[in-house]
Amino acid sequence: AQTVTQSQPEMSVQEAETVTLSCTYDTSESNYYLFWYKQPPSRQMILVIRQEAYKQQNATENRFSVNFQKAAKSFSLKISDSQLGDTAMYFCAFMVSGTYKYIFGTGTRLKVLA
Amino acid sequence: DSGVTQTPKHLITATGQRVTLRCSPRSGDLSVYWYQQSLDQGLQFLIQYYNGEERAKGNILERFSAQQFPDLHSELNLSSLELGDSALYFCASSPTNGRGGDTQYFGPGTRLTVL
Fold it and tell me: A23 pLDDT band (50/70/90 cuts)?
C-alpha cells in the first residue's frame, strides 16, 4: 500500500525567511505524481505545486519550489521569502499513474511570524 | 476560486438523520471526487465518478452513497448519521478520468456537524 508521511506536525518561520517542509512516500510504482496543497484558515484546498515523477527537474512556482529525490522517495517543499499569507496547513499528496485517487499525508501546520 | 462549487457551506443536523451534499464541477471537468476531512486530519478519499459512472471507491461507509448526474453535478448522500460523521466534506473535479495524474481542483467544502 502507498503511504505518505509528513513528519513535522507544526513549524514556524519568520516573515521573509525560508522554510522547508518535508514529505516522504512509500511505493513500489515507478510512474506517479506528487502534489503540495495549502489549506489556509478558510479551509479551501489550494494547489501549490505539482511534480511528475518521470521529470528529473524540480518543479517551481514563484516562491515555492520542491526538492524531489526519487531514489529516497522524498518530496520536500521550500517556501522562500515567507509571507504572512503563507500561514496554513500544507498537505503532501501522491497519486500512482493509472489510479484515481490522491493519498494525502497528515499535514504540516505552518505559521509565519511577523 | 477553483471553479468548483459546493452547497451548502454549513449543515447542522441530528444523529440518525439523512443529508445531501451537492457539488458542481469546473466547467468541462468530467470527474468528480469526494473526500472527508475529520478534525485536524488529512483528507480521506471516498469515491470518484467519471462522466456519470462510478470509477473508484475508497473508505466510504455503506451508509454513504453518491451519484453524478447527466449535467455532471454530483451529490453525496449521508444517512443514519452518527456523531463521528461530523467533518468537512470536499468535492474536487478534474478534466479527465484522473488516471493520467490530473490535478484535482477542490471546492470550498461543506462542514457537517452532527449533534
Answer: very high
